[in-house]
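User: For a teaching handout, I'd like to show students what a predicted protein-ligand complex looks like in token form. I'll give you the sequence and the SMILES for magnesium ion. Please answer with just the structure.
Assistant: Understood, here is the input followed by the structure.
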Amino acid sequence: MKAILTICRKELADHFSSTRFILLFTLILMVSLVSAYMVGTGLKEELQGVAKPSFVFLMLFTATGKLFSLIQFMAFFGPLIGIVLGFDAVNRERSYRTLSKLASQPIYRDAIINGKFLAGVITITVLILAIALIISGIGLRSIGVVPGPDEIGRLAIYIVISIFYISFWLGVSILFSVVFRSIATSALAAVACWIFLSFFVSLGASIAADAISPVDQNTAMSNPELLLQHEQTRHILSLLSPMTLYSEGTNTIMDPLRKTTQTLLLMGPLERLSLSRFQSALPLSQSILIVLPHLISLIAVTMIFFALSYAVFMRQEIRST
Amino acid sequence: MNSETVIETRDLTKVYGGQIAVNHLNLSIKRGEIFGFLGPNGAGKTTTLLMLLGLSEPTSGTAHVCGYNPTREPLQVKRVVGYLPENVGFYDDLNAVQNLKYICRLNGIADRDSAPIIEEQMKMVGLYDERTKKVGAFSRGMRQRLGIAEVLVKNPAVVFLDEPTLGLDPDGSRHMLDLICSLSTDKNITVFFSSHLLDQVQKISHRVGIMIKGNMVAQGKIDDLAREKFGLGPETYTLEEIYMKYFKEVQP
Amino acid sequence: MSHGRLVHKSLFGLAVLFLFCSLILIGRAVAAENGKEKDTGPERGIAVYTEYSGMFVSQGESVRMDITADNKGRTDENITLTLTTVPQGWKTSIKGPNYVVNSVPVPGRKNRVLTFAADPEKGIKPGSYLFQVDARTADGKFTSSQTINVVVREKTAVADDLQITTSYPVLKGQTDAKFEFSLDVTNKSETDKNFSLTAMAPEKWEVNFKPAYEQKQISSLRIKGGQNQSVSVEVTPAKEAQAGSYPILVYISSGEKKAEVKLSVVLTGTYTLDAGTPTGILSLESYAGKPANMSFFVKNTGSAVNRNIAISSFKPENWKVEFKPDKIDTLAAGEMKQVEVTITPSAQALVGDYSVGLSVEGEKNSSKTVEIRVSVKTSSAWGWVGIIIILLVIAGLGGLFLWLGRR
Ligand SMILES: Nc1ncnc2c1ncn2[C@@H]1O[C@H](COP(=O)(O)OP(=O)(O)O)[C@@H](O)[C@H]1O
Ligand SMILES: [Mg+2]
């Protein structure tokens, strides 16, 4: 355990002194600051005269401002943080020829990969917390809203989901860094994977949904069931993308009025009427239960990728050449 | 020299997917001994070292280092063995002291205790003046010496040096060999080193083992080997000649 | 030509008018001539007479009537009037417009009208009382007298003096209605009177008197002698009054005189229903696809028996709402029945608060709808499944650690 902490400490020091990480960190921090500031000033104008606005605090994270919301930004570019933190975790040791030396110290071999993963997760946590706190600070300063316990709970869950989401990408890139001896290869593979999972899966999901349960414009109007089936197919397929998992999960947890992670629902007029009667926010526990599948999928997939890289690393030959 | 056996292997074998890297190796090395491990590239020297360290699992056979089985008790073995890998690498963006400090931490030596040890070792390998320089700026000879210092910070009973003189200029090589000699003579450390450079092995080894294609073809004092093969005294045959003779026997 | 004819015409008109006037004048002269000729009555003569010579009055009632002193001769006379006979217990007098008088000058062939007044003292007994008035001339040569027989009768009921009439003595309506009767009160006596108004109604009923077309509440009214006035009686039945016929007695009294009238209100009963929960909590938690139970009461808050009360629901599609019982055959006034309701949200229901309306509908448009807030929750069973998945993954990871970790 001590060895893990020692390695973790060294890795943390490496992360926080590596130029590429600092560059990325400042970039993301700046983007978040700018977007939060814009959202904050926008909200301030909007809320003038509103007696008791609810969940304003969360809007700092979810409101789209001029370009994008923080959540969207994190969904798109959060993976880059994970990739940057992990793509050379193991193969850098190889290319420096330090791996066999490291392994010959009185430590279990898995301390190396555990320590690296832990350092990555800690870095991600620090980063997310920093962003969340800074935005909260800006929110407090510019619009003067104090978050309630419910909002803090939601924010905490958002932070947890974000940590797992980025950690998933850390796991993926560490796996590549174990599998590929070349740093450049693993970096490219991770980025390719990111682009594929984030951008092409959703595209592919619509195409596949068209193929599996086709709808054309004419029948769609008369047969909503068909449209729904199409949408569900698309939805399920698009959930293969961790970005979709993350976006849906965070959007739902950050918006207490959202009652489902789905985008399209078949709802009768009476049901709509009945549901719109009480425009009430969901209690936190219910929101959690709604996003639980997403959260669990993310956690599980993150752990699985970590386990994969762990297994591959442990079974690999430790040899400098 | 006492007669305590530090390294012992019995039919140690490693097979890489049908290719035998180490074949039924039997070794016995005593405390304080300098054992030269000879063989051409790909002979199985590194594989043997890795197996002895527990970094690679033997396909069959057993090994004992200081009484520990490297496969079952890798931590104990690693605690007493210093290993200098072939072409040792360092964290180039850290300086020499930081590199050593990290190794000390991994060995459970607190920073407070490690500082004098590091200082001592740096002095011993003659890199004290360069201790705050980034290792990336080190020459090959300095790196090898730093590697020796790194091996020694944990105060090992045994050191495994994999091709310690590889790529060094003659002066550097001589310096390195002196260092290795002093380990045995001053600290009674068992040195198990591999090389394919025969004259160096000849110079410092008490005993040598010759490995070709995973087979230990000869083992013993150089004089004995010369006598055994040729019936001649060591003053007339160099190790190289002995080696070539064995080599030709294996590869007709 | 035409001009000449017009002149001729007007001349003719004038002639006719002249003739007419002279005829009238001649007629009058002839009449005057006849009068003078007839004025051949006695030299002197007087008479005295009262308006009535016999009459009935009720106990305590005063008598007022004209008394006339008549000079029948041609000579002017001074006539002295004296009440020669006055029965015990009466005070009498002869009055002019201003004074009590005992003699009056009357020119020849003229008469003077005075007033005879007789007021009984308190406690006058019923019976016949005789009065006599004598008149004589100043020299006493001529006299005349007149007797008046007043019969005092025991005071009998009212009717004679006070009369109440109503056109609609029976009104019909629901318990929650107000009933307004209109009474016509006639003061048949000569004098103005105050009448006090009281009523007797069933307990908790409210009866108010009001002048017609006015909103004031009154408890008495003044009616001039011989006039009538209408009063409205507003009756508010007790809330819990059951259907049926209820008498309301209205008394109008003035002093000892009393009149009563019997009014009736026929309540047909009200039809109102109430529904709700005993605790007042109208919310329910349920899980998608899982039934949730609650109970509510149906109460007949009307005053009539309500029959065939149907219970229905307003719910989202694919939801199931079942009632036990699903209808109530009879519910007596004030009675309460419990209904068990089972609400099953559709399996696809979203998490959140849905509104479900439960309505009970009885007779005569009586209905009540209760809105229930159904909070659909996600079953935490899936949460446990998720946690089990995570635990499995962690266990797998742990196994991996154990298998590969100790190297
Ligand atoms: N991971 C590996 N997979 C397959 N073959 C290997 C692996 N590592 C080493 N070998 C083979 O084992 C043999 C011994 O290699 P090695 O011990 O590195 O030789 P040396 O160190 O004596 O030059 C070589 O023939 C090499 O090709
Ligand atoms: Mg080698």
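For the handout, you might add this sentence: The CA atoms of residues 54 and 74 of chain B lie 5 Å apart.
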